[in-house]
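stage 2 :: seqdesign
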């Protein structure tokens, strides 16, 4: 009986010490006492949340990490020197219910939604916003000394686009191509890119919005913080639409990732990506190298 009384008294003393002493000790260490008696120091409140803009339990959200900048002051669109990083995909569909289609363009768009014979899945380059929907993301490499910006679509047919930032105009008599000709300049923290000279052999977005060789594409890239790249695109194509129209998207930063070799296999049949509503592909025929 005596031992039982001693044990009960010891437990009461320990509980009293926890209630009275521990909070004072934590406060002296610069830590806050949360409801329920949990201490949360500065390191604990921010640990594991760096770059996410979130505080710990009961803490206000931390401001996002600022975008890195070049010596001339404009934001750096790619990875810092000695680091890695790519931008995740964006831009499922540029068009929406308010897009000013010409009748033939709307009919073609509706057909493509049900018959996904997309050139990209057959190893063709993807111009326009479609470049930023390629698998595994996009790598942007700025070379200020060359006055050029390179955009590599990782999950594509080993293609890339060059944006010239030397102030030069579009060449005359451009031969239409998948990526067209891109000329960029900085307006504050935004890279504005004027694109023209496209062919009609690609889809300019994942949904199959039509375009013609009259396509004039204006892009705006703004790295609003370390982890976000705002992308705005204006479509001006009098051959397919009755007026200009604009859409906006965001890309998220994937640190520690980088460009890798992606093999796009010609004649690679896939029932979902390549032939729309078909349920199977006959693979019994002999494949000749």
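stage 2 :: out
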């Amino acid at each position: 009986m005596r031992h039982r009384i001693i044990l009960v008294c010891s437990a009461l003393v320990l509980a009293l010490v926890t209630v009275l002493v521990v909070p004072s000790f934590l406060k002296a260490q610069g830590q806050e006492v949360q409801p329920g008696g949990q201490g949360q120091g500065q390191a604990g409140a921010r640990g594991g949340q760096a770059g996410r803009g979130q505080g710990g339990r009961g803490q206000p959200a931390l401001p996002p990490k600022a975008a890195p900048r070049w010596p001339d002051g404009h934001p750096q669109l790619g990875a810092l020197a000695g680091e890695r990083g790519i931008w995740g995909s964006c831009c499922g569909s540029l068009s929406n219910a308010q897009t000013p289609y010409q009748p033939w363009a709307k009919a073609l768009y509706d057909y493509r939604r049900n018959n996904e014979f997309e050139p990209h899945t057959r190893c063709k380059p993807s111009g326009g916003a479609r470049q930023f929907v390629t698998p595994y993301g996009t790598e942007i490499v700025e070379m200020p000394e060359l006055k050029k910006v390179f955009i590599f679509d990782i999950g594509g047919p080993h293609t890339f686009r060059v944006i010239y930032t030397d102030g030069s105009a579009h060449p005359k008599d451009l031969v239409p191509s998948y990526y067209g000709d891109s000329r960029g300049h900085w307006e504050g923290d935004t890279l504005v890119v004027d694109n023209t000279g496209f062919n009609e052999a690609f889809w300019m977005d994942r949904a199959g919005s039509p375009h013609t060789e009259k396509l004039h594409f204006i892009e705006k890239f703004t790295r609003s913080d370390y982890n976000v790249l705002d992308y705005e695109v204006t479509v001006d194509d009098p051959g397919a639409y009755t007026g200009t129209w604009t859409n906006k998207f965001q890309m998220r930063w994937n640190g520690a990732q980088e460009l890798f070799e992606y093999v796009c296999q010609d004649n690679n049949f896939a029932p979902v990506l390549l032939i729309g509503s078909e349920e199977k592909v006959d693979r019994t025929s002999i494949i000749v190298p």
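stage 3 :: structure notes
- The CA atoms of residues 101 and 241 lie 5 Å apart.
- Residues 1-9, 11-55 have pLDDT under 50 and may be disordered.
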